[in-house]
Amino acid sequence: MVALLLISVLIGVFLERAVYYQELAEKAAMEQVALDLRSSVNLRVAELVLVNQAAELRGLASQNPMDLMARKPANYLGVLRDPAPESVAPGNWYYDNGSKELVYNVDLGRYFVPDARGRKRAAWRVALVPEAGGAAAPQWARFELVEPYRWF
Prior knowledge:
Strand order of the largest sheet: 1-2-3-5-6
Oligomer: single chain
């Protein structure tokens, strides 16, 4: 009986840690895709600036950043328009064409703090950086979080 109790306690501890590390891996995968997207946006901006087409930067704010990647992640669902939160499967990326945000729906989320509306998601967008002095044309564009998230 003592051996069975000890084994069951060890299995319980192991399973708890396994779920923790699985969620940590999900967070790392999400952040890696976000870093790849940031690099893709920065490369496109640099390309436009180098060929003297900075006026086309404005279009990046309404473009799906996933279109700039050489290969989209396997868990990318595509372009959706104002989807209901329950209609998007957890653990997937999608581009919300209504809000112009690229969203990741958290799957395991045990240690994820939901946003103000109670959603377990992280969202990014392409933001235009104006020229110094407030000129009308943007000088740069960057891939940024819509609102900070807390995970762990």
